[in-house]
Design a protein that fits this description.
Helix content: 25-40%
Largest sheet: 7 strands, mixed
Bound molecules: glycyl-adenosine-5'-phosphate
Number of helices: 13
Shape: globular
Strand content: 25-35%
Number of strands: 23
Oligomer: single chain
Strand order of the largest sheet: 3-9-10-16-13-12-11
Structural class: alpha+beta
Length: 441
């Protein structure tokens, strides 16, 4: 979970992206009208669309384009014995220190002996602080009704291992994948949506014969690195970094992170862990249910080992935005442009009638209806066409379709591409196939 905090010169980029997110409605401070709540965010219209696209891009690569992974959608609140067995109750902790001078609290492993707020060295001894949020199920707040908000989605896959294996007639190697909210009572959330107490995880638990786990871990490291490149992050801004032994989570025999070069230095986007049979063994022991796989070919029984690529969707969104942000000049005018991959951009298409005049609206709306059956479209008829192109560039819309007065005569429209600003005149009948053909650049 550690983040290296090497200083870099590009904190201006961070500010520009955070400003853009607030100004254009990607991300809002949560419950802003009540003063917000520290480091908690609501995703606005553009953020909700972009997050959905990130989930879909992950789903496409991890489930749809494979024949060895199936999805599940497990409960957030579950039997607390799950967290006892998984080791999260005992060991999912960060070392907490208090500053006796200003009363701020810090993670001991993220500061160097002095309080970052007031500089005092008068700090308490580090003590383990459990990151799980506790709540009560039912009307009575007593020990027997304690439950926890899940700090990872992974356990939903482990406790359902048998159900999935049996109902889908799978055998290792195969995977179970899930996307969902996770909750951690982080001591020091921060850096915008990089570290928050509620976030979204996209996790795959890939079950393999024990001897094969090193090979599969290598495979998943390469696959996951390639996924970020496929969706638009330059490979120079990505790296794989194996964990030092003292960094490893309690369940891992070896983890490699996919890291992104954030404006403050390299930071984790995703961890690819070899969880061995730690979780299945723990649940087998605690539940008394055998979770062994029976290999009919060899007559062997074994607990599969697990390779787990675990990515944060909300953190990935921040990386995609930072990687895409650019400023250039078009016709002597400065523009901000998000060079997002078409499948990640909130809207894929903007339909823009050249003028607000009633004569153009019916045809423009007809084009809109045709395209929005396939792609997420925004319709905008306010202000000059130049201003509207800039607004779309700033939120990453890869294509603008402009309906002008000639369109009424020749049934053609102009498609403008965001990065090159090149314009192509096309028959309306061909617009959908033209745009669909350009989604996977
Ligand atoms: N099941 C394994 C697991 O949860 P993790 O490294 O703790 O592993 C996986 O988390 C990913 O989730 C991280 O690489 C990061 O992208 C994201 N993540 C973790 N904590 C987060 C937080 N507090 N806020 C936002 N994203 C977080």
């Amino acid at each position: 979970m550690a983040t290296s905090l090497e200083p870099t010169a590009d904190l201006g980029l961070f500010d520009a992206v955070v400003n853009l997110c607030k100004r254009r409605g990607f991300v809002f401070p949560s419950a802003e009208i009540y003063g917000g709540i520290r480091s908690t965010y609501d995703y606005g219209p553009l953020g909700a669309l972009m997050l959905r696209n990130i989930r879909e891009a992950w789903w496409r690569a991890m489930i749809q384009e494979r024949d060895d992974v199936v999805p599940i959608d497990a409960a957030i609140l579950t039997n607390p014995k799950v967290w006892e067995a998984s080791g999260h109750l005992a060991t999912f902790t960060d070392p907490l220190v208090d500053c006796r001078t200003c009363k701020e609290r810090w993670r001991a492993d993220q500061i160097e002996g002095t309080c970052p707020n007031c500089g005092s060295a008068d700090l308490t001894e580090g003590r383990p602080f459990n990151l799980m949020f506790k709540t009560f199920v039912g009307p009575v707040e007593e020990d027997s009704s304690i439950a926890y908000l899940r700090p990872e989605t992974a356990q939903g896959m482990f406790v359902n291992y048998l159900n999935v294996e049996t109902t889908t007639r799978r055998k290792p190697p195969f995977g179970i994948a899930q996307i969902g909210r996770a909750f951690r009572n982080e001591i020091t959330p921060g850096n915008f949506v990089f570290r928050t107490r509620e976030f979204e995880l996209m996790e795959l638990e890939f079950f393999v014969p024990p001897a094969d786990s090193p090979r599969w871990q290598q495979y998943w490291c390469e696959e996951r690195l390639a996924w970020y490149v496929r969706y638009g992050i330059a490979s120079e801004k990505l790296r794989l970094r194996p964990h030092d032994p003292e960094e490893l989570s309690h369940y891992s025999s070896g983890t490699t992170d996919v890291e992104f070069l954030f404006p403050w230095g390299w930071g984790e986007l995703e961890g690819i862990a070899n969880r061995t049979d730690f979780d299945l063994r723990a649940h087998q022991e605690h539940s008394g249910t055998s979770l062994e796989h029976f290999d009919q070919a060899t007559g062997e029984r074994y607990l599969p080992h697990v390779v787990e690529p675990a990515a944060g969707a909300t953190r990935a969104m921040m990386a995609f935005l930072l990687a895409a942000y650019d400023e250039d000049e078009i016709g002597g005018e400065r523009r901000v442009v998000l060079r997002l991959h078409p499948r990640i951009a909130p809207y894929q298409v903007a339909v823009l009638p050249l003028s607000k005049k009633d004569t153009l609206s019916p045809l423009a709306r007809e084009v809109l209806h045709r395209v929005q059956r396939h792609l997420m479209c925004e319709y905008d008829e306010t202000q000059s066409i130049g201003r509207r192109y800039r607004r779309q560039d700033e939120t990453g819309t890869p294509y603008c379709v402009t309906v002008d007065f000639e369109s009424l005569e020749d049934q053609q429209v102009t498609v403008r591409e965001r990065d090159s600003t090149e314009q192509t005149r096309l028959p309306i009948d061909e617009v959908v196939s033209y745009l669909l053909g350009r989604l996977d650049v």
